[in-house]
Amino acid sequence: MKSECSIVNADRLQLRVVSRMYSGPCPPMLKLKIWFNEKVVLAEGARQLLSEIIHVIQELFSYPHCAILLVDDKQQQLNVGASIGYREEVVQNFRVAIGAEGITGWVAEHKKPLYVPDVQKDSRYIEGIVNGRSEIAVPLLIGRRLIGVLDVESEELDAFTR
Questions:
Q1: Distance from CA of residue 76 to its chain's centroid?
Q2: pLDDT for 69-94, tens place per residue?
Q3: Torsion of CA 50, 77, 150, 66, to 10 degrees
Q4: pTM for this entry
Q5: Cα(134)–Cα(27) distance, integer angstroms
Q6: Are 154 and 118 in contact (CB under 8 A)?
Q7: Are 88 and 102 in contact (CB under 8 A)?
Q8: How does DSSP classify residue 121?
């Protein structure tokens, strides 16, 4: 059985996602691209968009702990822009100096993704979740300019290789 992925239209702006025929459901990455194109057009504000992105990542990839950390250029630190699955006190108080601390601070400084299969063996790890075991962090760039870091944590050892 074949299914077709949708093309997004919004007022005068037409965002086209290559529509291909697939056996089975639309692949998660293409679903994410289609969804993202819709939300960029429809989101009323940046915070709402960040929250929507976090929710769709959680839904598509079943990641219970996700955060988008945004760069504060003045302070040279990362602050939580949106998150899901973290304790409120972590969200409210989390600040990481770029290049000086944390896995996400390292990612921000080097502008390269980092996968840590066992955070207990990495001295850069800052606890975000109770019983955290693995973490993946990806820089968010516009061109060469860093705007933030997508951070995902799991209680499972080596959780992001499957």
A1: 20
A2: 999 988 899 999 888 888 888 888 88
A3: -70
A4: 0.71
A5: 25
A6: no
A7: no
A8: G
